[in-house]
Every structure is written in structure tokens, then in C-alpha cells.
Amino acid sequence: MPPLLDATGTGRFHLAAQRGTTAFVDARTSETWGFNQPHLGPTLRIATGQTTAAEVQNTLDEPISVHWHGLMVPGDADGGPHQTISQGETWTPELSITQPTCTAWYHSHVHGSTARQVQKGLAGVLQIVDGQDEARGLPNAYGVDDLTLVLQDRRFDRRGQIDYAPAMPDQMMGFMGDTMVVNGQVGRTAVIPQGLVRLRLVNGSNARIYPLSLSDGREMHLIATDNGYLDRPITLSDLTIAPGERFEVLIDFSDGRDIALVSAPNPNEMMGGMMGGGSNESAFVVLPFAVDPSLPATKDRLPDDIGGSRPQGDGTGVDVRNMTLDMQMGMGMMMRRANDRFSINGAAFAMDQINFDIPRGTVERWRITADMMMHPFHIHGVSFQVLSQSGRAPAPQNTGWKDTMLVHGSAELLVRFDQGAARETPFMYHCHILEHEDGGMMGQFTVG
Ligand code: C2O
Ligand code: CU
Ligand code: CU
To answer: Which terminus of the chain is less hemmed in, N or C, by CB atoms within 10 Å?
Structure first.
């Protein structure tokens, strides 16, 4: 597990972005970046109903930013591309949290550099807690029966270095690795008690979508989506997690058998496979589990009421905003500048251009159309309801509160804008395939 940095008592935390070295595959080391450690960051735990004083220091030799993905905070605390932290500087936002318990995450968000900086390790998990998990009957012993799992894929060169040199196909499809990395580690096994175990899954990959299941076909019980708990668990045999998304599941290990979390190949392909990108890889192990009966299993019963909620709006009569996620093809793409290959509604992201302004408290219906391939669509500063996916009712895994949603064809989102964001620090909406985001598939808006 990443170390736990619990800020619920002190109401403050300090993160220092730093460089270090990490041995991934064998003794050979790679240059990596992290927060307070050589690679990735600690799991931050902050309390809802409280204001937490954050301190983010940049000891690297290029600008970074730290965006709190999933936190409902105003634009000036959001950490987007307009809030870069220069070399040697410290950023001190106040995180005033009133939203329900959830698993969020934090990562760098410098326009044009996000993909590379996240590959290097500028990412970590953030938990919002309310101290009620024991009463809910949910596993909550950090690293024992409550596991935080950041899923990433990497390529390594012959010297053991993280190999991030995206060629044109990597730019188009998004950069995919050939090695599974969980919490910054390769080839490890999770040792767990013989009972109910909670997995907080975070897809921190640049582009890979994981269609997850368990190796013996065992059920997973979905208890939370991006922005919080469901009302009651949803039983699933597979669960697809796209970049930026989080899901929490309970798995029953009481039979003592060792199984593995496995993934089918990345399902994303260009234009239904016509343009390639369809993979020839096979299913692979994400993380093996080994049951250790000497570890304390505190929960053996699946709670039937978790006390969360599912959005219930119907979107009737709500103003529609259309968004098309566009890609330039072939020569059109090759001829373009690196930050201009992708766009939304025909416009590539421009730092100095606000795409629209929304009055605070407004509800809108966003109709997203994904061009050529699937795109995980994310909006800052809000939690939304998925009204439909390609004209049908949302899949069970999309019926909770979400801030990131894998769009295959089209989707309709019902969004309420409650956090303010001024022109200097607007909110972003973008594809969470980081090569697409850096390449211009992003826009920005104010809420005032
Ligand atoms: Cu997870 Cu705009 O980002
Ligand atoms: Cu975000
Ligand atoms: Cu995309």
C-alpha cells in the first residue's frame, strides 16, 4: 500500500514533489518522480465537514500542478493548468469539503505535460472520510481489508527506465504499456484476510481501459463509484474501469481460495478496428491475491444498505449542451502541431480562451459524442448523473455519482454546477486519455 497520510486530525498536509529512483522489474533502477517519496504519492485522508490546509511544494526543475480529481472545491483550489507551481515554489490551497465520502485522486495537470508527468509518478490517491465506515459494516483497516489500488501500465527500456516516448500511434490511441504496475510495483501479490475485502480501484493509467473480473468468475459487489457510496451494493461479474475513474468493490474471500484480479485486453480501437489499434494481447493478471487466515477478517457479511445514494434526475426540460470529441485523421493529424491534434466541438484547447460561462446553481444536460474511439470524459468541480449511454439506460456501474464517464458512441450527463470558478482559474472538461488531453481534447468554463 502507499503510505497513509492522515490529515483528519491535524487538518493539514504537506506534499513535496521530488525526484528519486525506483527499481521496478529487477535491481535496475529508473528515474521517477513522486510526492514525499521517490515514486507516486501517499494516500491522503481528509475529513468531510472540515477545511484542510494543503501545502504543495515543487522541488522539481519544471512547473507542475496538482489537481484534486473528484473534489468539489472552487476553481481557485482545483489545481488545473492555470495553477502551475514553479520550481522551488509552494502552493497553499484550502480544501473546504462538504461532499460525501469517496475515493478521489490527485495528479499533475500542466497543459501539454500531464501525460509525461503522470507517467513519471506525479499521482496519488485521496480519500474523503466521515468516520462512519464501521457503522456501515464496511471493511476499513487500511492495507489489511481495505486496499487502495492504483492501476497503471508502463513500458520499460533495457536499462529498466520508464520508457515514455509516444510515437504517432501512441498519440492517437493513447500510450499503452506492456507491463502491469499496481501502486508503483510490478509482480507483487496482495496478502489478504479470509473474509470480506474492499478494493478501492483507481485507474491512473494514461490510456488503458481495464475490463476487470476475478479469475474464478467470482462476483464483485460494487459499493461506490467516483463520488461516493451507492444506496446498496450492485453485484457484478465484470467491471470496466477507464482512465480517471474510481470504483470500490467488496470481494468475499471467506472460502480461503487464492484468486487473481484479471483484465481483458484494452477494448479501445480506432473506428471499430478499421484503423488498427485493436490489440492482439490476451487477458492478463492485474493482481494476484493470497489469503492469509492469520490476518484479522473483521467483516464477513455483505451489508445490504450502505447509506449512499444514486442520482434520480430525469433531465426533462433541462437545457442541452452538445460536445463532440474530435480527432484529426491521417495526414490531417500528422501535419498538426502536437497540441492541436484533438479538439472538442472543433476547437483545440487554448489556455487563453474560455469556452463558455455558466451561472452558479445551473443544471445542464451535456450530450457527449465520441468520435472514432471511446473517450473517458471528465468534468472538474462537479458530480454528475449519467442519463443515458448511446440512447440506452446507463450500465449498472454508471448509475452512481460520477465525474468521469467512458463514452462509447454517445452519452447524456445531467450536471449541476455548484462550485464557482473565475476566469483566472476556470474548470476543465476533457478526455482523460492523457495524450488526447495534452493534444487539445479539453475545454474550460467559468461558474459565476
Ligand atoms: Cu483527472 Cu482534469 O483531471
Ligand atoms: Cu478532475
Ligand atoms: Cu480521448
So the answer is: C
pTM above 0.70, yes or no: yes
**Smallest Cα–Cα separation from 442: which of 359, 329, 323?**
323
How far away, in angstroms, is 303 Cα from ligand 1 center? 32
Is the separation of the CB atoms in 69 and 403 below 8 Å? yes
Domain extents in the chain: 4-130, 146-291, 319-447
Q: pLDDT confidence of 330, banded at 50, 70, 90? A: low
> Could you give the C-alpha distances from 46 to 21, 253, 415, in angstroms and in order?
28, 29, 25
Q: Which residues line ligand 1 (CB under 6 A)?
A: 67, 69, 107, 109, 244, 378, 380, 428, 430, 432
Other C-beta atoms closer than 10 Å to the C-beta of 235 total 12
Third-level CATH fold of 4-130: Immunoglobulin-like (2.60.40)
pLDDT digits (tens, 9 = 90+) for 296-322: 999 989 999 999 999 999 999 999 999
Distance (Å) from CA 443 to ligand 3 centroid: 13
The third-level CATH classification (topology) of the domain covering 319-447 is Immunoglobulin-like (2.60.40)
Q: Which atom in ligand 1 lies closest to the alpha carbon of residue 107?
A: 1
36-69: per-residue pLDDT in tens?
999 999 999 999 999 999 999 999 999 999 999 9
CATH architecture of 146-291: Sandwich (2.60)
